[in-house]
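User: Hey, quick favor. My workstation is busy. Could you predict this chain's structure for me?
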Amino acid sequence: MIPQAASTPRRALRGRHPNRILVVDDDPVVQVLLRETLLAEGYDVSGAKSSEEAEQRLRQSPWDLVILDRRLPDADGLLLLQTVKEKSGCPVIILSVMDDQHDRTLGLGLGAQDYVAKPFSASEILLRIRNLLVARDVSLLPGRTQEIEHGPFRLVQTTRRLTADGTTHQLTAAEARLLAVFLTHPGEVLDRTSLTRSICQREWSHNDRSIDVLVARLRKRIETDPKSPEWIVTVHGAGYLFSAEIPCRPC
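Assistant: No problem, here it is.
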């Protein structure tokens, strides 16, 4: 089965240099699909069809994320994974028809951030890419000095103090980290897996309610009606979205 492209292109990245993604796969159909899909999202995309070509591109320029096929014509993709981690340190998503638990455990254990089985849907891999880049962006934030603003919100990370509509809130460390993610990625659907990794520094499981609890606490602080949130919106089956639009309220 050939993976299907996303039907509706999203907006380009807002006011930022586009993230650079390297697609390493010798399948021309996968190369074309991912290139067209990622370009429509506003990403800067390049391709490599072999381990040798990928290593050249890794030496030539920096990358924000690598999508890596397991079965390359000149090497096992897991060998190239080690090179990516050494030369770039950027997140890696492995693509593979090899989808048993042993292969997944091996790939993740060697340093990949995600493992996607072929055939895949473009919408699924886009969500995984966005979430990994969000986690990477958060890890690069100068968290002890930066002030973040969006709409009526101003978060001072040094003090974990939030000002919103003239009211000041003192946040816990976890609340401040979660809000920092939302404020720096408005309009993007963020899943619980990437949020748990970024906020709690652990893997998410289906019984883990930590992010849901933090979201509920933040809603009580920033929403006019936490039961009908305007800012932190639940996207059923996917995660949470922080509104990029400023809600209109009556004077």
